[in-house]
Amino acid sequence: MAGATNGGGNGGGGKVVSMPLQYFCVLAAVVVAVMVLSLSFMSPAAMVAVRQNLSSVAAAPGGSSNSSAGGAGAGGAAGLAKAASPPAGWKEKEQEQEQEQARRPPVVLFNFGDSNSDTGGVAAAGGIRIMPPEGRTYFHHPTGRLSDGRVIIDFICESLGTRELNPYLRGIGSDYSNGVNFAMAGSTVTHGVSPYSLNVQVDQFVYFRHRSLEMFERGLEGPVSKEGFESALYMMDIGHNDMVGVAHTPSDQWDKKITEIVGEVRQAISILYDNGARKFWIHGTGALGCLPALVVQETKGEQDKHGCLAGVNRAAKAFNRKLSQLCDDLRFHLKGATVVYTDMFAIKYDFVANHTKYGIEWPFMVCCGNGGPPYNMKQGRPGCGDLCPPEAKVVSWDGVHFTDFGSGLAAKLAMSGEYSKPRVKLASLIHGGSKKTSDS
């Protein structure tokens, strides 16, 4: 499907970007960020290999329904009456549950990340109006997400009974009473590489918190109260762009570079903690070596038995090990805090290694591309000349970011707690702290 061309007669005043041009405009910041990162992380020969924003994205939980049927047998009216009677204490228990629900503070979330969890921030910051087919599923119109639909953070909000997080810089029409999304496409942990690196996002949060509390102190209604900040969930899904840069440097340099990157994550979490944050949900990076955009470009790279780039995945796993160790350390040192690390690599790698389990026929195929299976990524032909059907079980939207379908799968597994350390379900962390099933 071909995108609309730039139009001067919109009347809207913003830039209208066609689908082929969309990734030139929106991801220009990403390209620049990774290239600048390359100057310090890699040799000039390796720069070409990482020209795209390689943050993966999100997941849509599949629903499940339970039904039960009952009937009256030959027991007569007395038996039927007995079956219809609620068990003793049923009303009291229901009232207790309703009271507990009423006592729960509103769900508040703050998210820090890159395009994996950007809900329109970079589009707002750049004044870019992205055109269809972006946003075609669920929202049925473009939203600034680099996907055909939702990203992982959207599914998380949905599961917690709150609306989608508004981007920090969007302004018009935004309601921040349930939190803020500071994520911006192209962002890195490393300072000075992208305009909205992790330290900048944390600074934005500190400013937002200060202004919110100041409003309450002046008797005005602020977006989030002191109690809201203290009970909120603080999510982090960033580092993918950094690790693509690191992966293209000599492996004997990885440890030093990854240690520096994880050190910046520690600093960010410490600042959030000093500003009242107590519940942290940290995502490791995904299986970057399985991203179709990299697999297609680096056909001469070492591949594993499933066709993913082994070297890139080794770098991603090295980062995740140090990030998990950081979470262990913070869990010990940050008094009163719950720090949960979730292994997104294992979740996303399984979509390739065991793709048939999820009904996926072509694990490396993109939805918005050209050329058809197995990749639908013909070099030099951007855009959606061959667009998959909305109901297709295709994980990748554009070779880098996930479809609504892929994000739904990943979110469901991430929230389950089965891939988390400690094994905490996301809902349990939100509603009453860390109810562990295991410390493994």
TrEMBL record:
Keywords, sorted A to Z: Glycoprotein, Hydrolase, Membrane, Signal, Transmembrane, Transmembrane helix
CDD domains associated with the record: SGNH_plant_lipase_like (cd01837)
Low complexity composition-biased segments: 79-89
Transmembrane segment boundaries: 21-42
InterPro entries assigned: GDSL, SGNH_hydro_sf, SGNH_plant_lipase-like
Region annotation (Disordered) ranges: 76-105
Biased composition (Basic and acidic residues): 90-103
SUPFAM superfamilies assigned to the protein according to its UniProt record, in alphabetical order: SGNH hydrolase (SSF52266)
UniProt GO molecular function: hydrolase activity, acting on ester bonds
Record-stated family: Belongs to the 'GDSL' lipolytic enzyme family.
Name of the protein: GDSL esterase/lipase LIP-4
Organism: Zea mays (Maize)
